[in-house]
Write a structure and sequence with these properties.
The structure holds 2 protein chains of 2 kinds.
Chain A: H1 22-55, H2 60-67, H3 70-87, H4 89-100, H5 104-115
Chain B: H1 22-42, H2 46-62, H3 69-76, H4 80-106, H5 108-118, E1 124-126, H6 135-138, H7 160-172, H8 183-195, E2 203-207, H9 216-221, E3 226-231, H10 234-247, E4 252-255, E5 268-274, H11 284-295, E6 296-306, H12 315-327, H13 333-337, H14 341-347, E7 355-361, H15 376-384, E8 397-404
Parallel strand pairs in B: 1-4, 2-3, 2-5, 3-4, 5-6
Antiparallel strand pairs in B: 6-8, 7-8
The chains are: A mainly alpha, B alpha/beta.
């Protein structure tokens, strides 16, 4: 059964859309939620594995406590930043192309050049 | 790309702070870390991309390069790299609030019971259900916090929006404000202690106190002073009181409007605010300054810590900072930075030679070793780091407007 919701999830103030097609905005928001859940899964697994290695079979409370340890938290932060690096590979590709002048015209020029006989 | 300054700073718990479960904590950390990643690894390439592509496209279309931040926005909104940046920034903000809302809803009854046990235990609070908060606070849900500052959950003791703000703002500021998120108040108090050595206020008013993050350091560092703090919504004032009561700090919190507080003339030695002015309006801000002048005793000080003005910034920096106006429901964010606060303070009655804008150095170093994650090496790295415009960071310090009322 769904928990009672006391608080609203809706923001007042028309939400801006950023991409040329609204479905892209919707897709990216969903992808980010999935990425967040992947991160949750990783955190859970880290906690279980860490706790198992350190102590053997454990209670729910002991696992949660292990997740809250300073070294676990530090590993978690590194893992998240690494995940973002992989997640946004295409965003970084865009910056490199824009600043490096790597355009589709150049690509076509290369083909034209290479295939010249 | 080196990702310096990563941190796993942890907020210090107090009785009213919602305690996240393992899963909730990770969703919250995800939103906090995502903000950090966007600012450190995506934001820095915006200007090179602008120079290399968007500015040139604009010039081609119009015959001239973008002349101000509005023209920069016109061309940047078509730029895919900017679209990705702005969309991710917005989504990070949305995920941040949602991850805290889930956590509050799950433990709502327990928090409600704690609220009942803490009410009026230490200090006091006064709210008035007939009071109407000003339109500039309720027209939009400022910084996209669902329900805004005035959300009513129908409780006898209306705390929920305050709890959301307490946890949400800690995540938004990525822990830079310290384990109690009180860096702004601490920075201003430090500034007073170092630069106004003879000044020992006995009565202090914190305007737009929200949930009292910045209020508590005044009581800590001026223990003999009577400290009042006001804000315009019931949940903020209520939660501020409950939080202070839980931490055992004696503050008087009241639901009042900083434009017209209702306190008698010359009631306070010191009137302060922290990130209040940019959440007011073009009409309200001058009225707040006038009210400060009225409330101060002769020789008393007014100090407002807020966003640095647009003057002395490049157009591109202005454009970046102004994103909050359009994409984060901060309607006064950009316009406030164009106002001349020194002139407005003079118009409010302060002597011209007693008004200045300066910097109150950040107190981040004081947090080293004080709470989980606040490792001295990481704190030191953060204190030394150069921040880019658009990053959440106090940089060298907080921008403060200081004015002294004429002596009798």
């Amino acid at each position: 059964m769904a928990r009672a919701r006391k608080m609203t999830r809706v923001v007042r103030g028309k939400r801006p859309m950023f991409f040329d097609d609204i479905t892209e905005d919707l897709s990216v928001s969903m992808i980010m939620v999935l990425a967040q859940e992947l991160s949750v899964l990783r955190a859970r697994l880290d906690a279980v594995e860490g706790a198992t290695l350190a102590k053997g079979l454990l209670s729910e409370t002991e696992i949660a406590e292990f997740a809250d340890r300073e070294d676990t938290l530090a590993n978690g932060e590194k893992a998240r930043q690494d995940l973002f690096s992989r997640l946004f590979y295409l965003v970084h590709q865009q910056a490199a192309e824009a600043t490096g002048g790597d355009t589709s015209t150049r690509y076509a020029d290369v083909i034209a050049d290479i295939t010249k006989t | 790309m080196p990702l310096d300054g990563n941190n796993n700073f942890q907020q210090t718990l107090h009785p009213m702070l919602p305690k996240p479960s393992l899963e909730e904590a990770e969703r919250q950390s995800f939103a906090k870390s995502l903000r950090g990643y966007i600012q450190k690894a995506i934001l820095p390439d915006l200007e090179p991309v602008y120079q290399a592509r968007a500015a040139k496209r604009f010039e081609k279309e119009t015959g001239h390069s973008p002349r101000d931040r509005h023209e920069i926005r016109k061309t940047m909104v078509k730029e895919p790299y900017f679209q990705a940046y702005a969309a991710l920034n917005r989504i990070a903000q949305e995920l941040l609030w949602l991850s805290v809302i889930e956590s509050i809803d799950r433990q709502y009854d327990q928090l409600s019971a704690t609220a009942k046990s803490l009410a009026n235990k230490v200090g006091s609070y006064k709210v008035d259900r007939a009071f109407t908060p000003p339109n500039y606070v309720t027209a939009l849900d400022i910084h996209c916090m669902p329900g805004g500052y005035a959300q009513n959950t129908g409780d006898d003791i209306e705390f929920a929006a305050g709890a959301l703000y307490d946890r949400g703002v800690y995540l938004y500021s990525m822990g830079y404000g310290g384990p109690f998120n009180d860096d702004k108040g601490r920075s201003v108090v430090n500034y007073i202690k170092r630069n106004l050595k003879e000044f020992a206020p006995k009565t202090i008013l914190d305007m737009g106190c929200a949930i009292g993050h910045s209020t508590l350091p005044y009581k800590e560092l001026f223990p003999d002073a009577k400290v009042f703090a006001i804000d315009v919504t019931e949940p903020l004032v209520t939660y501020a009181h409950l939080r202070a009561a839980g931490l055992g700090v004696d503050i008087t919190y009241e639901q009042r409007n900083a434009e017209d507080t209702g306190y008698p003339d010359a009631s306070f030695d010191l009137v302060v605010s922290h990130i209040l002015l940019h959440e007011t309006s073009g009409k309200a801000l001058p009225r707040v300054l006038k009210e400060c002048h009225r409330l101060l005793k002769p020789g008393g000080y007014m100090i407002h810590a807020d966003l640095p003005p647009f003057a002395n910034m490049t157009e591109f920096m202005r454009f970046i900072l102004d994103n909050e106006t359009y994409y984060n429901a901060e309607p006064f964010w950009g316009a406030m930075r164009e106002m001349n606060l020194v002139d407005l303070s003079a118009k409010a009655g302060f002597p011209k030679d007693k008004i200045m804008m300066t910097t109150a150095p950040m107190a981040i170093r004081e947090f080293a070793g004080r709470a989980k994650g606040y490792d001295s090496g990481i704190v030191d790295q953060l204190a030394k780091r150069e921040f880019k415009a658009g990053e959440f960071a106090p940089g060298a310090g907080w921008e403060v407007l200081i004015a002294q009322k004429e002596t009798a």
